[in-house]
Amino acid sequence: MENSSTVFDVIVVGAGVMGSSTAYQTAKRGLKTLLLEQFDFLHHRGSSHGESRTIRATYPEDYYPPMVIESSRLWEEAQAEIGYKVYFKTTQFDMGPSDNKSLQAVVSSCRKNSIPFRVLQGDEVFKEYSGLFQLPEGWIGVATQDGGVLKPTKAVAMFQTLALRHGAVLRDGTEVVNIEKDKENGEIVVCAREGGHFRSRKCVITAGSWTKSLVGKVRGLILPIQPLETSVIYWKINPGHEDKFTIENGFPTFASYGDPYIYGTPALEFPGLIKIPVHGGRACEPNERTWAPDQETVETLREWIKGRFGEAVDSDKPVQTQSCMYSMTPDGDFVIDFLGGEFGEDAVVAGGFSGHGFKMAPVVGRIAAEMVATGVAGGVDLTCFRIARFEENFRGNFKDFEDQVRSR
Ligand SMILES: Cc1cc2nc3c(=O)[nH]c(=O)nc-3n(C[C@H](O)[C@H](O)[C@H](O)COP(=O)(O)OP(=O)(O)OC[C@H]3O[C@@H](n4cnc5c(N)ncnc54)[C@H](O)[C@@H]3O)c2cc1C
Questions:
Q1: Between 3.60.20.10, 3.50.50.60, 3.90.1150.180, 2.60.120.10, what CATH number should domain 7-47+153-225+330-407 receive?
Q2: Ligand 1 contacts CB of residue 363 (under 6 A)
Q3: pTM greater than 0.90
Q4: In angstroms, what CA-CA distances link 9 with 30, 37, 179, 181, 198?
């Protein structure tokens, strides 16, 4: 295929969840699509691998819930098309000090977006979740319907399979080292490390933690996307309590607001284990990581687990950890924009998903596909995701609830 006369309609660079979902969406629209990945497909060196991700409609920013609602519908459509499940629905429970600005913003964003919610006091929380969540004095809970668990590796495989079914060409072990514009015919030339190149009319860059270096090389534009090394952490549920933490018995996906922001999912992927990590991580180079959990984070989690779940969960030490990466922007908001420069609207960059993008993969794929197909993404305002926001203010979008943004 290298240096062949094939001119693709779209080349997607990076086959994490965003690139795979985008390739599915472009191929489905009948665009001749090539998806390129530097490592093996379904590798564990980026952000989209593992056993679980949370989907929830509760966000302090009021522009995310409509995207979650669309994504939720698209997740269901994709799993119906493939014929197996990647999306396990449950409820969502958010908690934190009643004066926490992010949590207050969650409540007003639910109100603005007509998302039904209930604010619960400590004793009501105790009743609602059969005594499992113990809230400190002065904390409140916010219960909503739209929570759930997504299976990341299985979901990426699903999008890749669907992309293939719709005629996309998928190729791994192909690191893109440059992307150029052919001035003679306007085509995009995507150059691989091995020396070959591929041609297309449009291009989408979904390179996760490598976005900053690739965009820097291609356009000389420094996007403030910082890779962070983080850990997924599993804890053992004490004998006799295992069933209480399952989706079948009404256990929710949850988040605890404040510094740090802690989140978790029901016991699902490993029976008898519950995932409770901290949102955030240590700055890293994507190709140089420790692969080890941060001990301070583990200590913080031990205290939190003891306080919230008492004897139901063994807070002594984690029983399993997995390394992963966030690609963090200063404001925690995504970057979804045309690349500009000599590429104008022929290339789209979708990155900086800041540790909360997985749930949005279907809608991001839909948006990126529409941007390359028609130049406009319908039904969504991309103002908060523009690259230019960092030129206007190096910290990006202003937020009134800094605690949440810092912890991301
Ligand atoms: C521990 C953890 C927990 C999370 N929890 C949640 C959650 O509960 N809910 C939620 O919504 N989100 C969550 N997220 C965030 C979510 O997983 C990410 O936002 C999402 O996976 C980002 O996907 P991506 O495709 O942008 O990046 P990646 O998955 O990193 O994919 C980018 C791909 O591009 C490839 N690539 C890069 N450069 C090149 C190149 N030059 N040539 C070819 N290929 C290249 C990389 O190898 C990689 O495969 C979590 C993330 C982590 C790490």
A1: 3.50.50.60
A2: no
A3: yes
A4: 9, 18, 15, 14, 11
